[in-house]
Design a protein that fits this description.
Helix content of chain A: over 70%
Oligomer: heterodimer
Largest sheet of chain A: none
Number of domains of chain B: 1
Largest interface: A-B, 54 and 63 residues
Number of strands of chain B: 0
Strand content of chain B: under 5%
CATH superfamily of chain B: MFS general substrate transporter like domains
Shape of chain B: elongated
Structural class of chain B: mainly alpha
Distance between the termini of chain B: 26 Å
Number of helices of chain A: 8
Distance between the termini of chain A: 103 Å
Order of helices and strands of chain B: HHHHHHHHHHHHHHHHH
Low-confidence stretches of chain A: none
Mean pLDDT of chain A: 83
Low-confidence stretches of chain B: none
Shape of chain A: elongated
Number of helices of chain B: 17
Strand content of chain A: under 5%
Structural class of chain A: mainly alpha
CATH topology of chain B: Growth Hormone, Chain: A
């Protein structure tokens, strides 16, 4: 083989290395190594409330907190629980998949509601005078109603405000 | 045609596994079985061709290939299809190794025959998936096999004349030139590079169809980049006479392209094109250079050609068997992560809690319907809310969930692409050890 042939071969190999490195480098620089699904948060870690302004916004964060609390208690992701709670069929599949009894699910959902009330109180979205009775109430309700409260937190919180609000005003008038 | 057949069904695999109701791992055997039998039968087929005459061996091989192709096209179960593919590979092995004995008479010299045969192998490997995809989309996956029947029979017609001549004259190449040892390093490198290339074709096609939900014809158009780039690689090879630097450069480009596919920064077709160009140029350089090295100065050509066929198809089998379990596991894992990430987006959105839980449930139902696949999530968001503001929010959520699924689908193939790239790089070792052959 002549010298020209050798140098062409050498150039071809070097060129291939350079082109390959440029391509891979460019893709990595453009985020190629981090193009993965985002990691979901551990439901046991606190999820700070933003500053909710309306009842709708409070209900939204209340739902998320309740799901976090229940999922934490069950040791599953909040996302898997949310997908399960909407229908009876989904719930049955979920219970079967994770080996969860009705009783355990009920306890977890109630614990989730308590955490949501705690979080709402801490964020100043629920007064302590309303939070206390609500906490007592949710710990005694059946599973179907507890799930209903997570699904329709807006009505629940609106009703609570409607019932307990006047009582709270009355108490505030009398308390020092 | 026979060499394209090892990869031609790649784009039809998703269709086959839906129609024959099997799994990704199961349908992989439609590819594996053909390549495995080709790997095992190539050298014995070459020996038979030497004994009975290449004309007769090629004619019988093509007839068996055509008959088995018909059986593949009519198969109504995975096991029948796999069995027919095995028989098809037996016929293919006879035809392709015998053709190397017949080529010198057609093209003028053994050297030229080796070059033409090597180029046909590279072209076949690159063209197969695109051809298969177009046929699957325009007609059906069965048409891939049924179309091969007349093509194989037409190819057999001129060969029949040679076979008749052999039978009439008794002139069979009985000249017993010593069969030297096969070129170990070139064949070993061929096996490794073929494993990497098989991965490039198979994984990319699955990513496009199953991950990014392209139709077979769209995917075929996308992967046509590789054969087009292979033409460029063929031209480039003419400027470098030495086989070893061509083989090394080819292996590096194939690995570089595969690494590029492993680190795609977005689920966009355009971003698959530069890596495909590298793989296409690389495969044209490396497959022809290694085949020429393995055949160079060795006789009989059919037997050494048989070794190269054996090495290439063994490489494909190793690549598929090594990488299939990895990416099927990754697909499941990434699908799970993507759906959770998408559900998190829905839960953290400002939409009404009733609606968001309803959406989460619909997504869950959709996942059940599309169990084992990367789901198309659009139907989970139908019907859209009437309220324009809510509708816009839901559409945005749909986009975000789809983005998470695209991320998951793309990332699911990363590990396999990286391993395939490593196989390509490891091939540099035997390439370095292979002695330069002046053709």
């Amino acid at each position: 083989m002549n010298g020209e042939g050798r140098s062409r071969g050498f150039l071809l190999v070097v060129g291939s290395v350079v082109v390959s490195l440029i391509l891979v480098g460019a893709y990595l620089a453009a985020g190629g190594s981090s193009y993965t699904p985002e990691k979901v948060q551990n439901p046991c870690e606190p999820r700070p409330w933003s500053n909710p302004q309306s009842l709708g916004e409070i209900a939204n964060q209340f739902t998320v907190s309740a799901l976090d609390g229940a999922a934490c208690k069950l040791g599953v992701s909040r996302e898997a629980l949310a997908r399960a709670l909407a229908t009876q069929q989904g719930r049955e599949r979920f219970k079967q998949k994770y080996g969860i009894t009705d009783n355990k699910l009920a306890q977890a959902v109630r614990a989730g509601l308590v955490r949501a009330i705690d979080d709402a109180e801490e964020a100043g979205a629920l007064s302590p005078l309303i939070a206390g009775p609500l906490r007592e109430t949710v710990q005694r309700i059946p599973l179907s109603q507890a799930i209903e409260l997570i699904n329709d937190a807006e009505s629940f919180l609106g009703n609570a405000e409607g019932f307990l609000g006047p009582a709270q005003n009355l108490l505030e008038d009398f308390l020092p | 045609m026979v060499l394209a057949d090892s990869s031609i069904v790649v784009l039809a695999l998703p269709e086959i596994y839906r129609e024959l109701n099997t799994s990704v791992a199961g349908v992989t055997w439609v590819l594996v079985s053909f390549n495995l039998v080709m790997a095992l039968a190539a050298v014995p087929a070459a020996l038979v061709a030497r004994r009975v005459g290449p004309g007769r061996a090629a004619a019988v091989g093509l007839a068996v290939f055509a008959g088995a192709g018909l059986a593949c096209g009519l198969a109504d179960s995975l096991s029948t299809l796999i069995l027919a593919r095995c028989i098809q590979a037996l016929g293919g092995a006879a035809a392709v190794t015998a053709s190397l004995e017949l080529l010198p008479a057609t093209v003028g010299s053994e050297r030229r025959a080796a070059t033409v045969w090597a180029a046909a192998g590279a072209t076949g490997a690159a063209l197969g998936p695109a051809l298969g995809g177009i046929l699957t989309e325009l007609v059906s996956w069965q048409s891939i096999f049924l179309l091969q029947v007349p093509v194989a029979l037409i190819a057999a017609v001129p060969i029949l004349a040679v076979a008749k001549y052999e039978a009439a004259t008794g002139i069979v190449s009985t000249e017993l030139r010593r069969t030297g040892r096969p070129h170990i390093w070139a064949n070993l490198a061929l096996a490794m590079v073929s494993a990497a290339i098989a991965a490039a074709l198979f994984l990319l096609v699955l990513l496009l169809i199953e991950g990014w939900r392209l139709s077979p014809i769209e995917a075929a158009l996308v992967v046509t980049t590789m054969p087009l780039a292979a033409v460029l690689g063929g031209k480039l090879a003419e400027y470098v006479p030495a086989a070893r630097p061509r083989a090394a450069a080819g292996a590096i480009l194939v690995s570089g392209g595969l690494a590029g596919l492993a680190f795609l920064p977005k689920a966009t077709i355009a971003l698959t094109l530069p890596p495909q160009v590298l793989v296409g140029i690389g495969l044209a350089l490396v497959l022809s250079a290694l085949t020429e090295t393995a055949l160079g100065g060795r006789a009989p050509q059919a037997i050494h050609g048989g070794w190269t066929i054996s090495a290439r198809h063994a490489g494909v089998v190793i690549g598929l068997l090594l990488l299939t379990p990895i990416f099927t596991h990754e697909i499941d894992q990434q699908r799970h992560d993507a759906v959770n990430a998408g559900t998190a987006v829905i839960l953290d959105s400002p939409v009404n809690p009733l609606l968001k839980l309803d959406l989460a449930e619909r997504v869950s139902r959709r996942l059940e319907e599309e169990k084992g696949k990367v789901p198309t999530i659009g139907p989970a968001f139908e019907p859209l809310p009437d309220d324009p503001a809510e509708r816009a929010e839901v559409q945005q959520l749909q986009g975000e969930l789809q983005d998470q699924l695209d991320r998951g689908a793309t990332h699911a193939f990363s590990t396999s692409f990286i391993l395939a790239a490593l196989l390509g790089l490891i091939a540099l070792l035997p390439i370095g050890l292979s002695k330069e052959v002046e053709l």
